[in-house]
Specification:
This is Sugar transferase. With about 425 residues, the protein is α/β, with parallel strands linked by helices. About 55% of the residues lie in helices and about 10% in strands. The strands form three sheets. The protein has a four-stranded parallel beta sheet. Strands 5-6 form a two-stranded antiparallel sheet. Strands 7-8 form a two-stranded parallel sheet. Helix 10 (about 245-280) runs antiparallel to helix 12 (about 340-345).
Length: about 425
């Protein structure tokens, strides 16, 4: 995903190395071709070097394994991992270093299964060595980028007070006169400010010269992962319409994955249901009518995590006494959401999307939070962009922020954003982030 320029420019945001960066680092860190090229060389040489240190292992490899298919699988996995990192790391609220291991684990797993399914002889030690080498190289490059590379963006029509509130991930420099200082890689401006003809001509010249010019609000969206609605005219609902093409593709993926997962999910749900019934009286499956796609109600299924004899508010509070001991763990690891795979198979939900709210709570939010109903433009999901950043929320202020996350997901609806949510969901499940 790239930020949207006001007028199409020929280049994307350039990353500016600091003057202190060594010459070799300066060249390598700003070029994806160099990063990938060095990675492929290391993946080819390092495992062979390790083989040479162990004669017995080297002999076994030479006599028993055809290394060429393993090399091809390793190179393909590195290229796939590199492409995935490029597409995911530019998304908001992302730490590039934290994505390296899961991204390459996924790409090398794909390479392994391709060779396994095709029954091609596989050099597993060599493949593992390539995986470790790729992870090490990209992690080293990530650390060096954080140390030596920092983007510098010029601001036009923005006051110092407004600039101080912008993300610290970017070095912002307010332009006092219509001239582009050395080192500025892009310009962001507020179209609602009263720009003189002189500044308007300057921005036009930048675009014609290939310097990216961005709407400041769009740039903030890319840095915060949230889309805010204001009274300005740029808040057109057409800008939030999700990709209809990807909606169809995603629906096919949802159904296929749900059907494949259902047998395994059914076994887990059956086992946990027995434990729930043993701990407290009441049904194991909790059914609740929730607001669905395009505002249509549907019955959402969850594993019961609360005592049935206790009353309380419509939402779960911090340390809620209604939650059972087993329920606390089910909520922490999101196991209670597994029955919703059936909702996905029925077409009522998706694996990824805004979390569905109970009808009463959704109506309450619609009365108090502007544009709340627009989150129903896509199918609700088992996990989502807001869920992995906020967790479970109930207060109106938090609901407004949640809506901004949901709007971002709808506006930048894409395969790579879904991939990032999957990775963040894994982190959420392992850490129990946001559970109540």
């Amino acid at each position: 995903m790239e930020y949207r320029p006001i007028i199409a420019a020929q280049s994307t945001v350039r990353i500016v190395p600091t003057p202190a960066a060594p010459g070799f680092v300066r060249v390598v860190l700003v070029s994806n071709r160099y990063l990938l090229g060095i990675a492929l060389i290391l993946v080819a040489l390092v495992p062979l070097f390790l083989d040479a240190l162990h004669d017995t292992f080297r002999s076994r490899v030479r006599t028993d394994i055809a290394l060429l298919p393993t090399y091809i699988a390793s190179f393909g996995a590195v290229c796939l991992g590199h492409l995935s990192l490029r597409r995911i790391a530019v998304l908001p609220l992302v730490s590039g270093a934290s994505l390296i291991f899961p991204t390459f684990l996924a790409s090398f797993t794909v390479g392994f299964f391709v060779l396994f399914i095709l029954r091609i002889p596989l050099g597993l030690p060599h493949l593992l060595g390539s995986f470790v080498t790729a992870c090490t190289w990209y992690f080293f490059a990530s650390v060096m980028r954080a140390r030596y590379v920092r983007p510098i963006v010029g601001l036009v029509g923005v006051s110092p007070t407004e600039a101080a509130q912008l993300s610290e991930r970017i070095h912002w420099q307010i332009l006092r006169e219509p001239r582009l200082p050395q080192g500025i890689s892009a310009v962001a401006f507020d179209p609602h400010s009263n720009l003189s003809m002189r500044w308007s001509s300057f921005i036009t010249r930048l675009v014609l010269q290939g310097v990216p010019v961005y709407h400041l609000a769009h740039m903030e969206e890319g840095l915060t992962g949230r889309v805010k609605f204001t009274e300005h005219s740029d808040n057109e609902f057409g800008a939030l319409l999700p990709s209809l093409f990807y909606l169809k593709i995603k629906r096919v993926i949802d159904v296929v994955v749900a059907l494949l997962a259902l047998p395994f999910v059914a076994c887990i749900v059956a086992l946990v249901s027995v434990l729930i019934r043993l701990e407290s009286p009441g049904p194991a499956i909790f059914c609740q009518v929730r607001m669905g796609h395009r505002g249509r109600p549907f019955v959402c299924f969850k594993l019961r995590t609360m005592h049935t004899a206790m009353d309380g508010p419509a939402f779960t509070e911090e340390g809620d006494r209604r939650v059972t001991r087993l329920g606390a763990y089910l909520r922490k690891w999101r196991i209670d959401e597994l029955p919703q795979v059936w909702n996905v198979a029925l077409g009522e939900m998706s694996w990824i999307g805004p979390r569905p709210e109970a009808i009463g709570l959704a109506r309450h939010y619609e009365r108090h939070v502007p544009f709340y109903g627009y989150r129903h433009a896509v199918r609700p999901g088992i996990t989502g962009w807001a869920a992995v950043h906020q967790g479970n929320v109930a207060m109106l202020e938090a609901a407004q922020e949640k809506l901004e996350f949901d709007f971002f997901y709808i506006r930048y609806f894409s395969f790579w954003l879904d991939v990032l949510i999957v990775l963040k969901t894994i982190r959420t499940v392992l850490t129990g982030f946001g559970s109540r």
